[in-house]
Design goal:
By secondary structure, this protein is an alpha/beta fold. The protein is built from 15 helices and seven strands. The chain has a five-stranded parallel β-sheet, with helices on both faces. A two-stranded antiparallel ribbon has the order 6-7. A hairpin with a 2-residue loop joins β6 and β7. α2 packs antiparallel against α3 and α14 crosses α15.
Length: 332
């Protein structure tokens, strides 16, 4: 088995924050090669073994469970010869989680494996929750984090993924907060290992933002290669990933303003993530009187929904419940 370079690049962030665009732009540069999302640290590694260590041994049964998860979440199907070699190591008690991961990476890199002086780049947004574990595996790894205003990021996620349309906006706002906190906690512990950019800055000043990333990663940016990012993107976007097609079919642009967001959603996001949003230069465009009205109305409607006598609503509360449904308020 060929040994991979041990200084990989990982792109992370809340989903629908521009991670695919950033990945395409970086792997358009000379000597940086990437591949579709692996979802390895979130789903596959946990299916392989309960032990998070890079040297944890993987059994034959654990390997099969892990490969099933790989296909389920990433639709990556390793060739029979690779699977046979991994099974042989598992049967001998010599297969580790890191070996499985690197075999997946080698298969995805294809012809680029074996070249000299290259770096490989893995992008799975939710790997933001596993930064410490990844750094344990690859002490020379570098991470690029991208953040986007949560209002359009959440709306994009609800629009592009049917299974997320039923999620309360408040839950997605909390998920955005969890991703930010995971990044910030890692940054505080390992400031030299991670670099953060905003999607809005990347879309508005692509060359300038990439120059900063290139300086962090230690290579010289070739501006003439930026125009080939869509060609590079075709190798990292799978045919079934329709929500990513804009990266390879449309020019770079800040798409934040294309989403129409109900005031109730804006206020709910602001109530959960407002302080953090403003720390990153974002604000929620809601008039103060609308926010006060919403807050007071939500409190009254919640009181009407919860107040009962002998299991029956007090007079008038049925009308309040009906009004709440009409307003589509999310009352936590």
């Amino acid at each position: 088995m060929i040994e991979l370079p041990q200084n990989p690049i990982f792109i992370v962030g809340f989903p629908r924050s521009g991670t695919t665009l950033l990945q395409s732009l970086l792997c358009a540069q000379e000597g940086i090669y990437s591949f579709p999302e692996t979802h390895f640290f979130r789903f596959v590694r946990r299916a392989l073994t309960d032990d998070p260590g890079s040297s944890a041994r993987v059994t034959v049964n654990g390997l099969q469970t892990g490969l099933d998860a790989l296909y389920t979440y990433a639709r990556i199907d390793l060739p029979a010869v690779t699977t046979a070699a991994l099974n042989a190591l598992a049967a001998q008690g010599r297969l580790t989680s890191q070996t499985v991961f690197e075999q997946i990476v080698q298969y995805c890199l294809g012809e680029h494996v074996g070249r000299s002086g290259y770096r490989w780049l893995e992008k799975t947004p939710n790997h933001v929750y596993y930064l410490d574990r990844i750094l344990d595996w690859y002490p020379a790894a570098q991470f690029v984090h991208i953040v986007r205003n949560p209002v359009p990021a959440i709306q994009s996620r609800r629009k592009k993924f049917e299974d997320r349309q039923v999620d309360p906006v408040s839950e997605l706002a909390r998920e955005w907060m969890r991703a930010i906190h995971a990044f910030e906690q890692f940054r505080d512990r390992h400031p030299a290992a991670i670099y953060s950019v905003r999607y809005e800055d990347l879309a508005g000043n692509t060359a300038g933002v990439l120059a900063g990333i290139a300086a962090f990663l230690g290579f010289e940016l070739d501006p003439t290669r930026l125009d080939s990012y869509q060609t590079a993107g075709q190798s990292i976007i799978q045919p079934w990933e329709t929500w990513k097609q804009d990266v390879i079919t449309r020019p770079i642009a800040n798409t934040n303003t294309q989403y129409r967001v109900p005031h109730t959603h804006l206020i709910r996001i602001d109530s959960i993530a407002g302080d953090t949003m403003r720390a990153y230069g974002y604000d929620v465009p809601v008039n103060g009187w609308i926010k006060r009205l919403y807050t007071r109305t939500a409190w009254v409607l919640k009181l009407g929904a919860e107040t009962r006598i002998m299991g029956r609503p007090l007079p008038g509360h049925t009308r309040l419940d009906h009004l709440r449904n009409r307003l589509l308020l999310e009352v936590d």
